[in-house]
Write a structure and sequence with these properties.
The protein is an alpha+beta fold. It is built from 1 helix and 12 strands, in the order αββββββββββββ. It has 2 domains: 56 residues; 161 residues, Sortase, Chain: A (Beta Barrel).
Length: 220
């Protein structure tokens, strides 16, 4: 009888040990699994946050109000052709047959009603990692310099001539924003860029922003 009791106690002890081990393993597995889930969720949050941070505007820039202007063709005949603007550079966009000079950003002639407007926050093309920002009217008439800008698409080219160097850019992004007197410029700080801004075609409430990145440059 005593031997049987000892065997029973031994079996109970073994079974209890097995149950304890299984319980411990289950608890440990659940704990590790939960930690894995938390870690995964955390990494997901980090990745999402990183992605969202990449969408933050790198520059918020004040620009003169650009509109889609509609002018009587006779207005162009009243332009004083004797006016001379001291252009420091030229913007050229072959696809739309566009070429026009721009003045120094601190010049009194740097006015969207007279010329292309160079935003005061701009840097000139010779600044590595900088951003030249140029705005102009769309629409019709003599001051609608960017009337055909809406035709641009990604990969289209533009050139800026400045201080005897010709800078070659390509379009990498196009987006619209509400007119507020400011624009959010989404660009890569590691790139030298050109930003063009004009009123969105047939839309009184939005403006279109074109981001171009420098491809190469040539001394002329």
């Amino acid at each position: 009888m005593e031997r049987n009791n000892n065997n029973k106690n031994a079996k109970v002890a073994v079974i209890g040990t097995i149950i304890l081990m299984i319980s411990t393993f289950a608890l440990g597995y659940n704990y590790i699994h939960e930690k894995k889930i938390v870690a995964f969720d955390y990494m997901t949050d980090v990745l999402v946050s990183s992605d969202e941070s990449n969408q933050e505007p790198m520059d918020t820039v004040s620009v003169e109000k650009v509109d889609e202007v509609v002018s009587d063709e006779s207005e162009s005949t009243n332009i004083d052709s004797s006016i001379y603007y001291d252009y420091i550079g030229y913007l050229e966009i072959p696809k739309i047959g566009f070429k026009k000079g721009f003045v120094d950003k601190n010049s009194p002639d740097n006015d969207v009603e007279q010329n292309l407007f160079v935003a005061l926050a701009s840097t000139y093309p010779d600044v590595e990692g900088g951003n030249l920002i140029i705005a102009g009217h769309s629409g019709t008439g003599y001051k609608a310099f960017f009337r055909d800008l809406y035709r641009l698409q990604k990969e289209d080219e533009a050139f800026v001539t400045y201080q005897n160097v010709r800078y070659h850019y390509k379009v990498v992004n196009i987006y619209q924003q509400k007119k507020t007197g400011k624009i959010a410029v989404y660009r890569d700080y590691d790139k030298t860029t050109l930003t063009l801004v004009t009123c969105t075609k047939d839309d009184d409430e939005h403006q279109t922003v074109y981001i171009l990145e420098l491809i190469d440059k040539t001394t002329i």
